[in-house]
Amino acid sequence: MPIRNLDKIFSAKSVAILGASQRKLSVGNTVIKNLLGGGYSGQIYPINPRFDQIEGVACHASVADLPSPADLAVICTAAGSVPDVVGRCGEAGIRGLVILSAGFREVGSRGIELEQEILRVKKRYEGMRIIGPNCLGIMSPHSGLNASFASDSPLKGRVAFISQSGALCTAVLDWALEEQIGFSHFVSVGNMLDVGIADLIDYFSMDRWTDSIILYVESITNARQFMSASRAFTRSKPIIAYKAGRFAESALAASSHTGAMMGVDSVYEAAFSRAGIVRVQEMDSLFDCAGLLARQKQPKGPRLAIVTNAGGPGVMATDALLQRQGTLATLSELTMQELNQSLPAAWSHGNPVDILGDAPPQRFGDAVQQVLADKNVDGVLVVLSPQAMTDPTESAKQVIQVAKRSHKPVLTAWMGGARVRAGIDCLNLAGVPSYATPEKAVSAFMYLVQYARNREYLYETPRSIPIRFDIDRDRVQSDFVNLQSEGQQSDGKRTLSEVASKSLLEAYQIPTTKTFVAGSKEDAVDLAEQVGYPVVMKIHSPEITHKSDVGGVMLNLANREEVIEAFGTITTRAKRKCPEARINGVTIQKMYAKPYGRELIVGAKRDPVFGSVLMVGAGGTMAELLQDNAFELPPLSETLARRMLQSLRAWPMLQEFRGKPPVDLDRLVNMLMRISYLVANHPEIAEIDINPLFVTPDDAIALDARIFLDTTPAVTPATAYSHLAIRPYPSEFMKDITLEDGTRMRLRPIKPEDEPLWCNLVASCSPETIQMRFRYMFKATTHEMATRFCFTDYDREIAIVAEIEKEGEPTFVGVGRLIADVDHREAEYAVLVSDLWQGQGLGAILTDYCLDLCDRWNIHQVIAEMSPMNKRMIDIFVHRGFQLDRSVASDVVIAKKKLI
């Protein structure tokens, strides 16, 4: 259903209440009172055949008796009656439903059956949307709509609140009223039978009243849709999330180092970061953070300057900043000179800038202005302590004047009670955030930094690292099928041997040490002499995953005698510690010892919510103890892979460190990206554990590896890449063509690495071409502009570039873009062709190929908007059966074509 159909709920012009009641404090009575008390101006229709009126509003026997179909029905009846009630609403033409009734999946199997019955009924009525069941309801204060059984109505504001806990909603609402915090929408989602969190994020992205979203999340049900909606919203507006159950145990037992270190919370952390969501750890930070991120300028970095009239609070702010990994800004020489001229001689002569306890209001304003002008400063915190000579209100006014002129964020902490109250009110009224303590202000500033960093990371142009796979995909897939019968089977998971696991890694050109199986000590000696001493010997058993734990690894075996002795020692230890395990002998591999090497662990695991998740961390036998790791959702770009490494505490050791040269980071990044491809291409992989991955200044090689395959019948996805939360690069849309003049051209989807090529394409176009494509003029492309066109969500948008080779370098000569709505029912199309290539049929080629993609996407209608002067494109659309509409405006032609 198109997401805009949620208007029937949130912008309802009429509301029917099924289960309306005269009984005080009942749900059906409370909903009517809330609608009346909230100032709702639409029609209210209580539905109950036993009453003539409820709360002074005329009552109707059924929805069939209404003078016209209501937009919204609020259902308060018993759970068992709800499917029938939903059917009656559908017959009456009602398409928006909020089901408050409880007694569904939360009570067991009977409740699950009722939900399935509701879904079957819903399918009969196109356009019907349902929030709930088992929810508190919804509130839209700007229209006075309170379709809930909450005890109060929220104030008007610009923050949308979405919660999976109805009980929390009532507590938050009570607190928000006390703190005078308002909302654009307030939604309790309940069991999310139909409308989920992602639907609401998409809907609120188009809502004029919503500047930011707050999420209270207990679990995510449709990760792919959630990630797509969140990434779209956070392009321009912030989402703040509180995740409950941070320390819940993983639902699946960990059978590898990777699994042991990848908990539920770490996966949510990675997902939120990838979606651009700011996560808070305390409930009382939610609303401060939401308002702050929506209203304040984004800092360029974490360098904070502190201006205060008291030394102690300045120290408190500094401690809080450093504790949260912020940076105390180093003031420039110019700023120091200016402060020396304007401040008393006894000022602190550094940051924090202590302007002394006798500071008049003007001194506050001057100091803040001078510090803000410093290029080394990303933001300013002003801390006021009410001393005998302090004027908190006038000081606030001085700070407000400076803050309004600044492009950097200014935060304040007016400490105290009644004396500072008027000053705080002035700050709040002017939109300058004020906090009760320096610590809270610093915490808020770091949330600003986190949001800015998230956006920077999401839209940082990756370097183009060419990764080519000379592999026979059919053969690799055949190997996967053959391996289903190899290894140890347990609970739908098959553990592959080290030899088999390494063979799959090698198919993706991931270097490994060659491993050979020896069933006897004689075989072990023969193999050791073949590979060359020294060698490594490991126990070979399908039941033993962690070989070191059972003493099953021996290194640096230098001769025949040591190999024979090691064989007996290893097998004896394994039998003693794991008497139930099958011992199939040992493996032999060359001892890999290069100077300046470091050990990492790299892995992947399929999370039950977000699908495959990648991990990298400090490796070796101490991996689980150190717990120094980073997580990311595939697919990986060069930027994301490098960010994972940079986030490790071990990152400095990968650089030049105590005389050791740095490791080959490009090779390491390349390997992480290859593992990402491996996981993306093979949904059969439940876990990968590479430990250790040995990295040196000129190499990266997997010394040990174990892969676990999912053997359950449902492992094969219904759609491509459905085991991933983010759609990877659609390489299946690449097509090589040859033009009539012999020019070879590749049509392919654009990717973030293409930003320089896209900018060059735009630069090759005349002002007239740019005007016709973008409908406005600009002097040059910017990174911010390029991210909009090169960083695409392949689930919703695709740009097909026409690429040729010019003087040995790839060159874009045209691009066609499709932007689909959330439900893939309608897509907007636009095309840009370089001036040198216009008139050669390239616009038609791109249009035909994009229309072909619309068929694959199951798009119902394509729409394009162009200038009446663009004769070539108008002809292309006419020849392809588009209908033209010139009635919208004199300078616009709309072309539409129905495909289904």
From TrEMBL:
Ranges for the ATP-grasp domain? 502-538
Kind of enzyme, top EC level?
A: ligase
- Record family assignment: In the N-terminal section; belongs to the acetate CoA ligase alpha subunit family.
Question: What is the organism of origin for this protein?
Answer: Novipirellula artificiosorum
- Its EC number(s): 6.2.1.5
Q: GO molecular function of the protein, one example?
A: ATP binding
List, alphabetically, the Pfam families matched.
Acetyltransf_3, ATP-grasp_5, CoA_binding_2, Ligase_CoA_2, Succ_CoA_lig
Record keywords: ATP-binding, Ligase, Nucleotide-binding
Q: What is this protein called?
A: Succinyl-CoA ligase [ADP-forming] subunit alpha
Pinpoint the N-acetyltransferase domain residues.
Answer: 745-900
Q: Which SMART domains does this UniProt record tie to the protein?
A: CoA_binding
